[in-house]
Amino acid sequence: MKPREKNPPVDDAELLERSIADVASAIADPSRVSMLCALMDGRAWTATELSAVANIAPSTASAHLSKLLHGKLISCLSQGRHRYYRLAGSDIAKLLETLMGVSMKLRTSHKCMTPIHLRKARTCYDHLAGEVAVNLYDFMQQEHWFTDDGVGLSALGQLKFQQMGVVVLTHSKRKAVCECLDWSERRSHLGGSSGAALLSAFEQNGWLTRIQGYREVNFTDEGKRALHRFFKLKL
């Protein structure tokens, strides 16, 4: 009689199903969702800060963070006695943004309760999101700032980015241009390494300001003038 295998092989389809179930399980808790949404600002947070956001005890937060770490949705960085948590990458941020869009779509019968400042302009991990970002993406498409396949900057796009002082990482594993579905606008904004570089330049140029611990951004007077000059957008 052939001995029974202790760990029978798992085919690719079953492995994929288990992996999807593990990710869904890691997200499926209101407290963990609150933590993930907070981390969508692209910055690193302490466990204490995340416990305050989720309105739970620090000990409970630690258990939730362990679950998110195990699911590889977040990463942890230790500096001295402190530990900081952040999203595991832009792909996780894109997944969360997509889930937000699907969730809002399923609640179309309810009045949108999203604060106006969040709908106007906010961060989506390392790039800009919201109404302003969607309008910028539409303008760049219409003015042919992207290549025909939509995954890179055209010669004109590269020139315009240079004029704004935007430096795009050329050796990044990410796509230079990647459309990201905006959950509040239900349209696309700019992601990828170009989207990250654009937000970074906006901040370095003093065109927008960010508040620690919040996703919304505010455009300065100089930033508003720059939006009109480069994108024909009036705020």
UniProtKB/TrEMBL annotation:
HTH arsR-type domain residues: 12-107
Pfam families referenced in this protein's UniProt entry, alphabetically: HTH_20 (PF12840)
Domain of life: Bacteria
Gene3D superfamilies: Winged helix-like DNA-binding domain superfamily/Winged helix DNA-binding domain
Family matches, as InterPro entries: ArsR-like_HTH, HTH_ArsR_DNA-bd_dom, HTH_Metal-responsive_Reg, WH-like_DNA-bd_sf, WH_DNA-bd_sf
SUPFAM superfamilies: Winged helix' DNA-binding domain
CDD domains, per the entry: HTH_ARSR
PANTHER family, per database record: TRANSCRIPTIONAL REGULATOR-RELATED (PTHR39168), TRANSCRIPTIONAL REGULATORY PROTEIN (PTHR39168:SF1)
Protein name: Metalloregulator ArsR/SmtB family transcription factor
The species this protein was found in: Kluyvera intermedia
